[in-house]
Amino acid sequence: MLTKQPFTVTLKEMERNLSAYLRRVQSGETLVVVENGKPMVEVKPTLASLAAPRPYALCAGEFSVPDDFDAPLPDDFIADFEGK
């Protein structure tokens, strides 16, 4: 979970030390790049890199998959979906 305060660097500093700042982001920090004193971009780690793996079968028994689940869709449905 993201709990740390964002850290701020200038665009020039980011260019000089890109790999070091990206390692900090990978470890869970949020980076704000500023140019002329104004925030330009915010760089955050992906949620997937922060989250613990989800356990299997979270919804076991909650619903059933119909036998024709992987059957081809009707042509008119596909045409509507494709805007034809």
How is the topology of this model organized?
Blueprint (H helix, E strand, L loop, with lengths): L6 E4 H6 L1 H9 L4 E5 L2 E6 L3 H4 L24 H7 L3
Parallel strand pairs: 1-2
Antiparallel strand pairs: 2-3
Describe this structure in words.
This protein is α+β, with helices and mostly antiparallel strands. The chain is built from four helices and three strands; from the N terminus they run E-H-H-E-E-H-H. It has a three-stranded mixed beta sheet with strand order 1-2-3. It is elongated, with a radius of gyration of 23 Å. The model has no long low-confidence stretch (mean pLDDT 88).
- Measured by DSSP, the beta-strand proportion falls in 15-25%
Please state the structural category.
Answer: alpha+beta
CATH superfamily of the domain at 1-51: YefM-like domain
CATH class of the domain at 1-51: Alpha Beta
Q: C-alpha Rg, in Å? A: 23 Å
Molecular shape: elongated
Distance between the termini: 44 Å
For the biggest β-sheet, the strand order reads: 1-2-3
